[in-house]
Specification:
about 270 residues; Spore Coat Polysaccharide Biosynthesis Protein SpsA, Chain A; alpha/beta; 10-stranded mixed β-sheet; two-stranded antiparallel ribbon; about 25% strand
Length: about 270
């Protein structure tokens, strides 16, 4: 089988339903499978898939173990040569999947790649990054992002100096939409489940580089991502005490502890 598409659901049954319709409408011209995991939200998605999408494999997770835990359940069941991880809030454009597959086929040194993510209004979402330093939660999660120092740091972190319509190797990718080579996973390992949410994609990217695989941004492949990140310009208390921010900060601390003392991998 060429491709396994893994979708993780948590209380997003309507978005997941629309993405499944989207994927089936593409009529992908190669052997593939779609696997949906419900991260213990029990939101009625199981019956929707059974009735409307009988060809889709459904996995009911017994707990909400987070992004890495849920996606790993799907990856373990996947049989494709490539595995594509998708958030439910995506709209896959007609040629994007084939473009990502073609890129992986012609670039065997690449283990992990991601497309250009755009908003519904076609504006870009910066979804590839440098490896961060300790400034990350401050400049991504607080009003300090609006300072000159914050803007300078974020521009460098988000690689804004590059032409995001083109393909290039990058230190790290955001996990909303990723394509990964199965043979590379066998060397690098699964997503790290010590993170509940956030940093697991950065962690994975770093491990791919460390094991000798390249990580690539495929700017030629375009995917709509409907997610809107919480404003980093919120006041400081609100930023710090939001659930999303807490998860991000806790995961970042775990990331720093895990890689403490280890040199950054060479990119390129």
């Amino acid at each position: 089988m060429v491709l396994s598409i893994v979708i993780l659901n948590y209380k997003t049954k309507n978005l997941t339903k629309e993405l499944l319709k989207n994927l089936l409408d593409l009529k992908l011209p190669f052997e593939h499978e779609i696997i949906v995991i419900d991260n213990a939200s029990y939101d009625g998605l199981a019956s929707i898939i059974k009735e409307r999408f009988p060809s889709v494999k459904f996995i009911q997770a017994p707990k909400n173990g987070g992004f890495a835990y849920g996606n790993n359940l799907g990856i373990k069941q996947a049989v494709g040569q490539y595995i594509m991880i998708c958030n439910p809030d995506l709209a896959i454009l007609t040629t994007a999947v084939q473009q990502m597959l073609d890129y992986m086929e012609f670039n065997p040194s690449v283990g992990l790649a991601g497309p250009r993510l755009i908003n519904a209004d076609k504006s870009i979402q910066y979804s590839c990054t440098n490896f961060p330093d300790w400034h990350l939660p401050i400049y991504r999660r607080t009003m300090f992002s609006e300072t000159k120092a914050g803007q300078t740091w974020l521009d460098k972190y988000l690689l804004k100096n590059l032409d995001h319509n083109k393909n290039f190797f990058v230190p790290a990718l955001f996990g909303a939409c990723l394509i990964v080579r199965r043979s590379a996973i066998e060397v690098v390992g699964l997503l790290d489940e010590r993170y509940f949410m956030y940093m697991e994609d950065l962690d994975w990217s770093r491990r791919f580089w460390s094991k000798g695989f390249k990580v690539a941004y495929i700017g030629e492949a375009e995917v709509i991502h409907l997610h809107r990140r919480q404003s980093a310009a919120d006041n400081l208390p609100k930023s710090i005490f939001s659930r999303s921010a807490r998860n991000h900060i806790v995961s970042f601390i775990k990331y720093l502890q895990k890689f403490r003392g280890q040199p950054l991998p060479k990119v390129g």
